[in-house]
Amino acid sequence: xxxxxxxxxxxxxxxxxxxxxxxxxxxxxxxxxxxxxxxxxxxxxxxxxxxxxxxxxxxxxxxxxxxxxxxxxxxxxxxxxxxxxxxxxxxxxxxxxxxxxxxxxxxxxxxxxxxxxxxxxxxxxxxxxxxxxxxxxxxxxxxxxxxxxxxxxxxxxxxxxxxxxxxxxxxxxxxxxxxxxxxxxxxxxxxxxxxxxxxxxxxxxxxxxxxxxxxxxxxxxxxxxxxxxxxxxxxxxxxxxxxxxxxxxxxxxxxxxxxxxxxxxxxxxxxxxxxxxxx
Length: 279
Ligand SMILES: Cc1cc2nc3c(=O)[nH]c(=O)nc-3n(C[C@H](O)[C@H](O)[C@H](O)COP(=O)(O)OP(=O)(O)OC[C@H]3O[C@@H](n4cnc5c(N)ncnc54)[C@H](O)[C@@H]3O)c2cc1C
Hints:
This protein has helices spanning 14-22, 37-42, 78-82, 93-99, 104-109, 112-118, 124-131, 150-153, 225-234, 241-251, 257-275, and strands spanning 7-9, 28-31, 50-53, 63-66, 69-73, 135-139, 146-149, 154-156, 159-160, 167-174, 181-188, 195-204, 209-215, 222-223. The chain has three domains: 7-53, Uridine Diphospho-n-acetylenolpyruvylglucosamine Reductase, domain 2 (2-Layer Sandwich); 58-174, Uridine Diphospho-n-acetylenolpyruvylglucosamine Reductase, domain 3 (2-Layer Sandwich), CATH 3.30.465.10; 181-274, CO dehydrogenase flavoprotein, C-terminal domain (Enolase-like, domain 1). α10 packs across α11. The model has no long low-confidence stretch (mean pLDDT 96). By secondary structure, it is of the alpha+beta class. It is globular and about 55 Å long. Flavin-adenine dinucleotide binds at residues 29-37, 54, 74, 78, 101-102, 106, 109-111, 113-115, 117-118, 123-125, 162, 167-168, 194.
């Protein structure tokens, strides 16, 4: 099937994109890497009158340090992060995470902002950003940018708080201290496929952050808060098989037996990564 006819536009500036979007009455759609939008257009699940290509907008393509956090422009691609193109993200946990998204051809075009906006429950950015307590920067025409915690950004599968006329301009990530611990594990049926079970863990003594978050669920990722606090307090010994199983049963009610076991294995392996030999 081919996409229905639409007008393709390439705004020269973010301001122009925001203005066009605001004036389109809900008939325009943003396009970044087109890795998800392309298939949706072809299947006619999306039939916008206008498509605004924001993939090359300079304002969305930089990585900077802003108020002690790394501000990643929305149109930065997974491959650019994988390749260490931005110094601030070299060695950051998202570098390795980005390198394991799909296939290289998808990573060459797929973007941080497109991935967050699409909000696939199994998407890697959705999980990593949630575990890292990241914030999503959102702009609309003639309005001040707003920052929203990742925890509040994704409402359900393919559903976010983004309103009509709003654009993700950046993702704000923490800078990890030397003492920080990070783990990320996902089960994929084949290399390059979306995860079937996944977990990200982030422990940062400096900010007293403790996160164990399970992804690839029916909706947004789910945090195992009590388990994470126990691990922060008592070490990884607190994450026994029984404790992990109990935490999953308590917080996630949508999984069948296999799903629970896969999620539990993802948590175990993720913590092993975070705490190495101590796990
Ligand atoms: C074969 C295949 C395998 C994949 N496997 C994985 C995987 O394993 N893990 C994973 O995480 N992802 C995976 N993906 C998804 C991919 O990584 C992209 O991140 C994703 O397709 C969306 O990014 P994009 O830049 O292509 O966005 P697009 O497809 O251009 O846009 C997606 C949606 O986001 C909106 N949008 C785009 N930019 C913005 C913005 N700045 N502000 C607001 N809305 C915006 C668009 O309007 C559209 O609704 C896979 C994709 C494919 C095709």
